[in-house]
Inverse folding.
């Protein structure tokens, strides 16, 4: 079974690596990190480089796709973009089409979420609605063969759910959860829009806005 | 403030990327991914390549180090190994010396955990004790300026704690937690040795053993 994770400059590392570290432990799964052009892709901050080993064009019939998000999605939200074309092309043949964070914007741009309930990073719900999806405030949303996850860290929860669907049983998901010792103890209870006080939401919104502006600037420099 | 994350072939991606994605959001933090020899390092499965941008020798006075684990640690647990030497050399000058998963074995080999309470992946507690530390069954253990975290996913919890120590307040840790939407909903409650049924522990132990044997084989082929 082939599981393809497309990456691009400006992706959020944990969006991709959370699911990667769960799914690469699934016996029989071949995880492929791919990109429009193979080679090194840098995360949104530019601080981390991850290798895309294969071209999208070489990954023609993946069984599962996991599309990460990040400010870099802004560079791909248009018809004709190679990532959007690839998602639209491979989706009919997948067993599962999934996304983490603003990766759902790319699924929406590819026409997969028209009128479909889906989730994304809490700060991007409006953007998701503008692309035709029906955003709902849940961490993992499964509709037919499409599973979308909320912001960044939620990809771990989504991938464990996916393992359960792929194997048709709880055992392997439980084993992988134990393998990655996923017994989270977040130091605070401020991890979602619904739980965080308004002033904290404001603070994070302005940081995200600044990051997005910086990304736009980097894009204009053709990073 | 410089935060160094050393990586090596056979590291576990999430051990490094969980903390990276938290710490790279801290204003004023410069996160540096480094290795004995700069360049691409592959994870334990060989499936994912991450770039080390700087040589350890160029990172002489990091304020914080975060040492990930993975089966690849087995190739570095000896005096004279460049990673062990670097950890021992920079530790006296750090504000915080931290590890995730079996990264604590490397701290121990570097002489930092002699008689000190620390944690590691649940399956490596005995190995940690053999290196002179005092393993305890906690997800994040803080002793003086040394913070060790349990298996793989625990690095996210550790890094949020670290942000709180670095900033001296809760606000930034809470904001980053909201930024990465860290409001975990693990599908099962089997994520720790203490919570998992014995047959699940057996299953995971044999998978880890197989992985370790495969890593030993790859090492003998000089991956």
């Amino acid at each position: 079974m082939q599981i393809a994770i497309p990456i691009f400059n400006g992706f959020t590392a944990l969006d991709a690596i959370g699911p990667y570290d769960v799914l690469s432990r699934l016996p029989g799964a071949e995880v492929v990190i791919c990109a429009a052009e193979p080679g090194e892709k840098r995360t949104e901050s530019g601080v981390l480089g991850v290798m895309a080993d294969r071209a999208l064009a070489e990954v023609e019939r993946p069984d599962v796709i996991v599309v990460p998000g990040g400010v870099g999605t802004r560079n791909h939200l248009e018809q004709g973009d190679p990532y959007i074309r690839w998602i639209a092309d491979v989706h009919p043949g997948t067993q599962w089409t999934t996304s983490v964070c603003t990766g759902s914007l790319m699924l929406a741009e590819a026409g997969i979420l028209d009128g479909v309930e889906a989730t994304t990073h809490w700060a991007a719900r409006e953007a998701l609605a503008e692309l035709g999806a029906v955003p709902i405030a849940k961490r993992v949303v499964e509709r037919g063969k499409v599973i979308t996850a909320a912001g960044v860290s939620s990809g771990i929860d989504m991938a464990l759910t996916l393992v359960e669907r792929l194997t048709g049983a709880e055992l392997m998901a439980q084993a992988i959860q134990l393998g990655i010792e996923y017994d989270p103890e977040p130091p605070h209870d401020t991890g979602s829009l619904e739980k965080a006080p308004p002033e904290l939401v404001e603070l994070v919104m302005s940081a995200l806005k600044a990051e997005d502006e910086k990304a736009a600037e980097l894009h204009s420099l053709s990073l």
Observations:
- The domain at 2-185 of chain A is CATH 3.40.50.880 (Rossmann fold).
- Residues 198-220 of chain A form the longest helix (23 residues).
